[in-house]
Amino acid sequence: MDLSILIVNWNTCQYLRSCLAAIRSSVRGVAFEVIVVDNASRDGSADMVRSEFPEVRLVASPENLGFARGNNLAFSLSSGRTVLVMNPDVEILEGTAEELVSFAERHPEAGALSPKLVNPDGTLQNYYGRIPSLSTIFFVYTIPGSWVDRRLLGSRIRRRDRFEFGDFQEVLWFTDGGAAFSCTLIPRAVIEKIGFMDERFPVFFNDGDFGIRLFRAGYKACILPNVKAVHHGGGSVRQLDELAYNQEFIYGLRAFYRAHAGWLYRRAIDLALFCNLPARFAKTLGHVLLGRAPAGRLVRLFRDFWKTFTYRPHNARNHLYKVPHPDGPARSA
Fold it and tell me: Measuring CA to CA, how many Å separate 247 from each of 202, 204, 272?
């Protein structure tokens, strides 16, 4: 088997239908399988896959496993020499899968390969970011920091956080970031060496964690210029309200640094994130004093802030999927 396509779905039935239809019509030159893990969707996604795409291997989970655990489960059932991790809101175009597989075979140093991600109108997306640093967190993720960056630094830090390029025509190589797991091909040999997804990161920052392990093992990430995939963007996370999104994002960010940074650096990260509280308090207090918001909004502000920093997802586990040895079960790190 040349290729295993892994898709984890949560309440994105229409996107998933288009995703699977695009795979069916565009992937021709490689032997492949498609494995969908449905995370207890309530929109009929599992039934749609059963009735319309019988060739797809469906795992209908009775609970929401999250992105990392869902992909680990799908990978454990796969057999391809390469693995394509795809979001259900991605539509792969003709020739893309074949070229990703071919390029991986010709370039063993490539540990994670992505096509160009484009919007539905064909314009290029910038889903290619660096692994975040302390300066990024303060100047991009906090209210006072982003104000300083925008007003005094000309948004220099925000621009540095993303790889800026136009409609590139050469292969782009990275050793400190790259495309997220929206549509990324990984050779099985790489996963056998460094493991797959760390389930401490059920939604956010699993790609950053994988990237760090990838680069430390001597591999590179790359984006191919001559193949494309349409990415609608945020199909699953758009279902989260503001509090739920912040909880998942902040949890993932802090868990990422618990895994990859020392105690002092982690405390600096927390201090930077706490800068948002006085900034939000001052803004909310102004609205209350001007009669634009009820006084209870201040109580809600502190309550939500506490809920965000004490949140732990039910589907987070301290478990890194490693490929089983022939004589024993998979190991946990």
Answer: 12, 10, 16
**Amino acid symbol at 231:** H
pLDDT surpasses 70 at 269: yes
Cβ–Cβ < 8 Å for 71, 37: yes
> Domain 3-126+163-234, CATH 3.20.20.70 — does that match?
no
Which amino acid is located at 235 in the chain? G
Distance CA 251, CA 160 (A): 24
- For residue 333, CA distances in Å to 91, 94, 194, 202 come to 34, 38, 11, 16
**In this predicted model, what pLDDT tens digit does every residue of 101-136 receive, in sequence order?**
999 999 999 999 999 999 999 888 877 778 888 988
The boundaries of every CATH 3.90.550.10 domain in the chain are: 3-126+163-234
Tokens of 96: 């893309």
What phi, psi does 69 have (nearest 5°)? -65, -35
3-state DSSP call for residue 237? helix
Cβ-Cβ contacts under 8 Å for 240 (sequence gap 6 or more): 248
